[in-house]
Amino acid sequence: MKIFVTSVRAIFIAMLSLALCQTAMAKESDPLPSWNDGPTKSAIIEFMDKATDEYSEQYVPLDERVATFDNDGTLWSEKPLYFQLLFALDRVAQLAKDHPQWPKTPPFSYVLNGETDKLSTQDILTIVEATHSGMSSDEFDKIVKDWISTAKHPTTGKPYTSMVFKPMLELMNYFRSHGFKTFIVSGGGNAFMRAWVSSTYNIPPEQVIGSRMAAEYQLIDGKPQITRLPELVVNNDKAMKPVEIYQAIGRRPVAAFGNSDGDLAMLQWTIAGEGPRLAMFVHHTDAKREWQYDRHSSVGKLDKGLDEAKAGGWLIADMKKDWKQIYPGDDK
Amino acid sequence: MKIFVTSVRAIFIAMLSLALCQTAMAKESDPLPSWNDGPTKSAIIEFMDKATDEYSEQYVPLDERVATFDNDGTLWSEKPLYFQLLFALDRVAQLAKDHPQWPKTPPFSYVLNGETDKLSTQDILTIVEATHSGMSSDEFDKIVKDWISTAKHPTTGKPYTSMVFKPMLELMNYFRSHGFKTFIVSGGGNAFMRAWVSSTYNIPPEQVIGSRMAAEYQLIDGKPQITRLPELVVNNDKAMKPVEIYQAIGRRPVAAFGNSDGDLAMLQWTIAGEGPRLAMFVHHTDAKREWQYDRHSSVGKLDKGLDEAKAGGWLIADMKKDWKQIYPGDDK
Question: Which SUPFAM superfamilies match (chains A, B) (predicted)?
């Protein structure tokens, strides 16, 4: 009996010490070390403190903690072109040997002749549809994985997955560690993103909501497969983002993060919900460490969104001022 | 120092005891108490033992553990009509006061005059589209919640959510307790199901994949809302089930459960994956405690699927033989 009491007491003391120690550590360690101290960082932490304090009026129940993140320009860079488009252009070069007519057929000829400035929006859609279809779901996954693990960015020479934003990785971790389920809600293709987001962002494939190509279930030689078809059926941009969040998640997010007018509807819908809400734009203000652009950029244009964020008091993460470090490798 | 060593030893012993105790309990307690002992139950448990034993060749890594469940006829009853259709018929009666022309306009007149046997598939679609649209996402959620908490089944008189299958609730729990993420993949509407599945099945809204009505993002008096539109854009049945699983989850399930030919493609695609797989049909064989039907039923027809399951050695849960209890309230 004495041994039992001693054991119980020892366990109790050990657990109490551990709990106290963890609390102390949580208070002392900085959850967002790549963020400079300032109003943006403070506002994020203040939001989280209230949202997770069950005695606060701003408390958010655990099963409502949904946070959505745009990808291009919000979690990784998007210049000179969306990285998925660079993948599509690489695919054109790779597939050209099987399409002898391409060097003379626009829009493929523009790509093969280095005239990508001639590409219209319709041309880009044609190229994406042609390069992202005609194979099984498993084959496409392998194609993207092969590309992303070997391709290098045209100006930085870095692998694309090393051009993710360290402050945003920390932010996603911070939200997850406070019980939030984190989702990608992006104009990028769902299958393109799923090939690499698990390992890069620690987000499982089913929490990735992207644009959709049509797909078909087929028995080929008696073997079931999903075949990708050359038709974009959901362009997950602008007003489609809240709609797709509704269709896929079924709930309004509590927090949403974007960087362009393409994210504005998602942020509007998020912030308009009852109770505590957080909406934030990443503002590309750092020409030296990343890129500087907003109202007049062809990629990631942030114009109306910037006005609405300022008017509504939403958060704006100023890359240059708020971010101590941009990419994970920058401190090496 | 002595105290420290004592504490550590005590903790170690306590943890060891707890671990041994849990192992013993796991072996002794039955995870599927509503299932009769027999080959179906044994096969399920054997599958799980191997899938979760890291020394087994049949081991499934934690992040691949995806199990998909059809809803109507698999997790709850579906006679005399799909419950969502009964909801739609109730809605017609309720909305009739605002539609004075309905008593003379088919297909609404059929419903209002008790001639539901006259309804064609197209009529049903017309009724679903008319009764499930024209309101905000929040309003629709409230309408379904109000209905499901008050409506009673026409023949049993039970609330619909008490007509779920206890053995399947146990099965979902069993899968979740072994690290599987459980998803509903149903022909039912995604928003209809999400209004009640969290509390009934312990499945969060984002793990519900259903048919989709079109929806639109709108600013109404400056307030953002999602408005439901009268157009079915995804009919999540038959060959669309594996396609929608691919679009929403991005991975092939390891285990899939259905009860009709509408689930056949999902089960085919699941079982055709590499490594250990489990496919099971619920076979409605119990005219006394539930309903008895398969090859010739208008609702939940199981014909080709039954042949393919038998030929392929898939599991078939025979309600009458395999299930000790059907509904949760049956033992009261």
Answer: HAD-like (SSF56784)
Q: Note whether A79 and A308 are within 8 A (CB).
A: no
Query: H or E stretch including B130?
Result: helix B121-131
Q: Predicted ipTM?
A: 0.91
A21 belongs to a structural domain:
no
| pLDDT tens-place string over residues A123-164 | 999 999 999 999 999 999 999 999 999 999 999 999 999 999
Q: How far is CA B281 from the centre of its chain?
A: 13
Residue B155: exposure state from Cβ atoms within 10 A (0-12, 13-18, ≥19): exposed
Is the residue at A296 inside a domain?
A: yes
Could you list the residue range(s) of the whole structural domain that residue B177 is in? 31-331
Cβ proximity of B201 and B169 under 8 Å: yes
Residues A63, A70 contacting (CB under 8 angstroms): no
Other CB atoms within 10 A of residue B254 CB: 22
Q: Which residues of B touch A6 (CB under 8 A)?
A: 6, 10
Residue A1: inside a domain, yes or no? no
- Structure confidence at residue A244 (pLDDT): 98
What's the number of domains chain A is made of? 1
CB-CB neighbors (< 8 A) of A311 in chain B: none
Residues 6+ apart with CB under 8 A from B137: A246, B191, B215, B225, B226, B227, B228
Q: Do A217 and B205 lie within an 8 Å CB cutoff?
A: no
What's the CATH number where A100 sits? 3.40.50.1000
